[in-house]
Amino acid sequence: MTLTRESAPSSRRRAVRDILLYGVAGGLLIAVLKLTEYRFLVVEHSVEIYGALVAALFAGLGIWLGQTLTRKKPALIIKEVPARAPVQPMGPFVADETRVSQLGITPREMEILGLIATGLSNREIAGRLFVSENTVKTHSSRLFDKLGAKRRTQAVQIGKTARLIP
C-alpha cells in the first residue's frame, strides 16, 4: 500500500486525534479512580481521620502549653544607686525672668502653665480665671508653641527644667 501526498496529512491528524482521545480517556479514568479512592478513604476511615485530627490538635496544644508554662522568667537585677540629696531652696520659688522674656511668655500664660502643673483641666482653669474655656485653649496652644511642647505633661516638664514653675 502506497501513501499519496493527500493521505499523509490525514493519517497524522488521525494519529494526533487518537493520542489525544486515549490521553483524555486515561486522565478521566485516573480522576475517577482517585475520586473513588478518596470517597472510600473518607467514608470508610472517617473515625480514624477525625481521631488523628483531634490527636494532632491536642499534641500541638500540649506542646504550646508546656513551653509557655516552663519558660524561664528573666532574671531581675537590682542595682542600688545612691541618690543625691535634694537641693533645699533658700527661699520661696522665683521664676527665671530672663528665661521668661527669652521665650516671650506672657504673665497670663505663666499663670496657665502653673495651673496646668497643678493638674487642672481646661474647664477648671477657665473657672478659676473667670475666662472662657476657648481662651484657656488659646493661651495653652501659644504657650506650647513657645515652649516647643506637644502635650500638657511635656509643657510642665519643660517649664520645670527651665525654672519657670516650681
How would you describe what is shown here?
There is one protein chain. This protein is mainly alpha-helical. It has helices spanning 7-44, 46-69, 97-103, 107-117, 122-129, 133-147, 152-161. The protein has two domains: 9-69; 97-161, Winged helix-like DNA-binding domain superfamily/Winged helix DNA-binding domain (Arc Repressor Mutant, subunit A). The protein is 68% helix and 0% strand. The protein is elongated. The mean pLDDT is 82.
- CATH topology of the largest domain, by name, is Arc Repressor Mutant, subunit A
Rg, rounded, reads 43 Å
The proportion of residues in beta strands is: under 5%
CATH class of the largest domain: Mainly Alpha
What structural class do the secondary elements suggest? mainly alpha
Overall outline: elongated
Overall mean pLDDT? 82
Main beta sheet, described?
A: none
- Terminal-residue CA separation: 118 Å
- The name of the CATH architecture of the largest domain is Orthogonal Bundle
Helices and strands, in order, run as: HHHHHHH
Number of domains: 2
Which percent bin holds the helix content? Answer: 55-70%
Low-confidence stretches: none
- What's the number of helices? 7
Q: How many distinct beta strands?
A: 0
* Fourth CATH level, the homologous superfamily of the largest domain: Winged helix-like DNA-binding domain superfamily/Winged helix DNA-binding domain
